[in-house]
Design a protein that fits this description.
Radius of gyration of chain A: 18 Å
Order of helices and strands of chain B: HHEEHHHHHHHHHHHHHHHHHH
Distance between the termini of chain A: 23 Å
Radius of gyration of chain B: 22 Å
Helix content of chain B: over 70%
Structural class of chain A: mainly alpha
Number of strands of chain B: 2
Shape of chain B: globular
Strand content of chain A: under 5%
Oligomer: heterodimer
Largest interface: A-B, 17 and 14 residues
Number of helices of chain A: 6
Largest sheet of chain B: 2 strands, antiparallel
Distance between the termini of chain B: 27 Å
Helix content of chain A: over 70%
Number of strands of chain A: 0
Strand content of chain B: under 5%
Chain lengths: ~140, ~500
């Protein structure tokens, strides 16, 4: 691909903003519209921009398959662990109110929802990125 | 609240975590994958038994996720019907997990073993989720989890034909998934709820709506594709034949049964017998198609020259028996149908295990190359004979008991002709089962060199196969105990109890 300074510079400049917006969407999930899935997709969109502006190997070097697996496992683990933690103060699965009542910290359930959303966001981001890698792969390195 | 109360959710969450653990452990040491998978599935099986006993003792369990009562939250609802299915599928999943290790070593490349066990675990978990969820959209989500895992597992044999089989299944499975989603959407439009029990309560008010009729047809056709109900079975023979042995066993027993479970659940719990008999009379049609399925599946099975493909077509025929009981719609026939869900899972699991062993040892499952194989593999062929007897319906096996109840129910409902055809279908089963027995026992094969060398497979593959073969017999002998589980389930489906 022909080097294009304008596209590359602007992409470099935009990526952090997209990612901050993604984090905003994720954290906003507990209060209103937004959530882990949408935020994760927006986060992955920043990687798409990088792949378009640079190329696949460039992005892959920085976020390779191993990290994708680690991120998807980490996200699900956060979700499931917080869900299971709710069983300890004799709540149902994902019943955040039980933890809040047991520890007596106000608004704790909101933070727990945020933590779960972050877990979802990480997994969705990793899964989306791996889909992009696979469909934009022109052969060659496959893992 | 003790741990027992949380079993419905733990039986789903722990295996999902385990599948991730398998992935991570596989990086460290590939040999760790199998033990984790086996232990998880055995734990799930144990939990299923505990849940079954609890449901029998104390009645249905309803578990509200997040403490949100339905219709706002998602619930896991386990009653006498799905606790029975849950125990059945996890019994078969556990047997398959024991069997899988050697078969996977042989048929799947070492670099794929990690992903195999991860997907295996996810498939089982998805099916367990489908079985115990009380929310119809949640059912769809778990259906997709299990379907995607199944597509990948079928392709993992890495033969060109298994890719084709997997792709065909993917196309048909996606159509089925789309139909099911449209059906769920229609129900939601008509009632404004997704909870199954809530749907059952609200739906009678809108029974006359075209939206509801469309939802019914979409759901029934969608799940019929998934359950391979004739004539929507076209994906099945290739998918069963071309996938690795362990996958064949799992999808032919566990996955097919869960699709039938979902069909029963939707027809009886959500739409109720009043709908399918009075409002939208469909039972006669189902009965007719099921009868055609029994005969056509058996005839096609007789025509095959490959052992696995023959058993695959036999599955098409056996799904017909279960749907037959749905078409008859009375207590006795449904008891027979539910027994047949268990019975067919056990015997077809055993038969496919024998086929897998033969492939493991001989490298082929073409019937013409298996002449005299009983001399080399006496235990496997004996297991085949026992499970085959159950498939035909020879007393006192479980296959006899279930068919006996189905026929009894059909006679009670006055379907004399259909009952006659069902018995004829059993005779056709003799045709394909006997064909293998004859080839294995009474044809002289070419001399396989050193006669003293036994070709029997390793114990870890023989043990689950023999256990399932004996179960075919034991379940038939001790059928009274089973009836105590199946009886309440059948009356629950018919709207009583």
């Amino acid at each position: 691909m022909k080097e294009n300074v304008v596209i590359r510079t602007i992409s470099r400049f935009l990526v952090p903003f997209i990612q901050v917006y993604a984090l905003y969407v994720i954290v906003h999930g507990a209060l209103g519209a937004g959530g882990g899935f949408q935020g994760g997709v927006v986060f992955a969109a920043s990687f798409i921009l990088m792949i378009i502006a640079f190329d696949l190997p460039y992005v892959r070097q920085r976020f390779n398959y191993k990290w994708i697996v680690i991120c998807s496992v980490l996200g699900v683990t956060i979700y499931a662990t917080i869900g299971l933690l709710c069983l300890i103060p004799s709540g149902n699965y994902l019943e955040y109110g039980a933890i809040e009542a047991a520890l007596g910290i106000p608004h704790l359930h909101g933070y727990l929802i945020d933590a779960v959303e972050v877990g979802i966001g990480i997994t969705v981001m990793a899964a989306m990125t791996s889909i992009i890698y696979d469909i934009s792969n022109k052969g060659g390195e496959s893992s | 609240m003790t741990l027992i109360d949380h079993l419905p959710v733990l039986i789903i969450v722990i295996p999902i975590l385990a599948s991730l653990l398998i992935l991570l452990a596989g990086w460290w040491d590939r040999r760790l994958c199998y033990p984790i998978s086996l232990i998880t599935i055995l734990l799930q099986f144990g939990a299923a038994i505990v849940i079954l006993l609890q449901v029998m003792r104390e009645g249905a369990i309803r578990y509200y996720l997040g403490g949100w009562a339905p219709p706002f939250g998602i619930e896991l609802a386990i009653d006498s019907f799905n606790s029975f299915i849950l125990a059945t599928i996890l019994l078969l999943a556990a047997a398959t997990a024991v069997y899988a290790r050697r078969s996977v070593e042989r048929e799947i490349g070492p670099e794929k073993t990690i992903s195999f066990y991860v997907l295996f675990q996810l498939l089982v978990t998805g099916l367990v989720g489908m079985t115990i969820t009380g929310d119809i959209f949640n059912l769809y989500v778990f259906l997709e989890i299990s379907s995607i895992a199944a597509y990948t597992l079928i392709a993992s044999a890495r033969k060109p034909r298994s890719y084709v089989a997997s792709f065909n299944y993917l196309v048909l499975g996606s159509i089925a998934g789309g139909f099911i989603l449209i059906g769920i959407g229609n129900l939601y439009v008509a009632t404004g709820t997704l909870n199954m029990l809530d749907l059952a309560r609200l739906l009678p008010a809108s029974f006359e709506l075209a939206t509801v009729h469309a939802a019914f047809l979409f759901l029934v056709i969608g799940f019929s594709i998934k359950a391979a109900f004739f004539p929507l079975h076209l994906w099945l023979p290739d998918a069963y034949t071309e996938s690795p042995s362990a996958v064949t066993i799992l999808i032919s027993t566990v996955m097919a049964k869960v699709s039938i479970y979902a069909l029963f659940r939707i027809i009886f719990t959500i739409f109720s017998t009043a709908y399918i008999i009075d409002v939208f009379p469909v039972t006669g049609f189902i009965l007719f198609i099921a009868t055609v399925a029994m005969i056509a599946g058996a005839v096609l099975a007789i025509a095959q020259s490959d052992l696995k493909r023959m058993l695959a077509y036999s599955s098409v025929s056996q799904v017909g028996y279960i749907m037959f009981s749905l078409g008859v719609t009375n207590q006795v026939a449904l008891e027979g149908g539910l027994l047949h869900i268990l019975g067919h899972a056990v015997m077809k699991g055993c038969l496919f295990m024998v086929a897998g062993l033969i492939i493991y040892r001989m490298g082929t499952s073409r019937l013409s190359e298996l002449k005299g194989i009983a001399k080399a593999m006496p235990i496997s062929c004996a297991a085949f004979a026992l499970a085959g007897a159950s498939m035909i319906g020879i007393p006192p096996t479980i296959g006899f008991m279930s068919k006996y109840y189905i026929v009894l129910g059909a006679l009670e409902a006055g379907h004399w002709v259909y009952a006659g055809i069902l018995l004829l279908g059993s005779l056709l089963a003799v045709g394909y089962i006997w064909r293998f027995i004859e080839i294995a026992y009474f044809r002289d094969g070419r001399d396989r060199g050193s006669g003293a060398r036994t070709l029997e497979a390793p114990a870890s593959m023989l043990a689950p196969m023999v256990a399932l073969a004996l179960l075919c017999l034991l379940l038939g002998v001790f059928v009274e105990g089973l009836m105590e589980i199946v009886g309440p389930a059948a009356s629950l489906l018919l709207g009583g109890a």
